[in-house]
User: What shape does this take?
Amino acid sequence: MEKTVSEAIAYRRSVRVFDDNQPIDAEKVRSCIENAILAPTSSNLQLWEFYHITDEETLEELTHACLGQNAAKTARQLVVVVARKDLYRKRAKQNIAFLKSVYGDKKEEDYSRREKFALNYYRKLIPTIYTDFLGILGWIKYLVFWFIGLFRPVYRQVRKSDLRIVAHKSAGLAAQNFMISMAAIGYDTCPMEGSDTLRVKRILRLPRGAEINMIIGCGIRAENGIYGPQFRVPFSETYTRI
Assistant: This one.
């Protein structure tokens, strides 16, 4: 029986050592990745990709790229979460095609005001925000939006660095969906940031615009797989009700 959401969240720990004697079902891991893509994502652009590694040779290469840490070395499978800010044009077009399919077979002049707004969001606003050249356009947009912001609330995350953060936030939300889904079926994970991301990209033959968000070790926890009790700072230090 699958765990409840609260049970899965409580069960999930960053497992550093996986049990060599307990394999995991690749199809079940794939199903958990399908849950990952249901995560919320900025502008529904879904600027992410997931690489599910089961091949022994590739696992060995990625373990080396992950600096040989146990969470990679003992993992039965790996999932590499990749942020793809560079795919914004393709994803915007996919959203436009989806919206048109929802709106039905009619001429664009017959669309409602709300429907036209949604289409123009992906046709005009997304390209305006994401288009950049050597970071220069981003700073120009930042200054323009800053000036507008003197008079009214305005979106300000328009620089190249801002949009990278936006893409990585969405990828991180998807990764958490994946790890909670794994915990729900009794599988364990360990999200790793310690890796040579350039080597990882070469191993996976990723394009220049792709960025490694995290690498997640997957398996069943060994008896010594969790290094100690879970520590969290007091809730009162992190929670403010206004």
